[in-house]
Amino acid sequence: MFLGNKKLGRPTDNPKDISLKIRLDKETSERLEDCVKTLEVSKAEVIRRSIHRMHDDLKK
Description:
Elements: H1 26-39, H2 43-58
């Protein structure tokens, strides 16, 4: 069966279509992993939340 150009996955109002590659030192990577395990979310979600929190702090 040929699916063609059909887009797979769940529909969303906020697509994540921008990719970002970063380099981390060992300590920062371990801290990220701790956040992932504690919050039970993906690395990308931890980073998104952190960016939003930092941005909100800028406005204070």
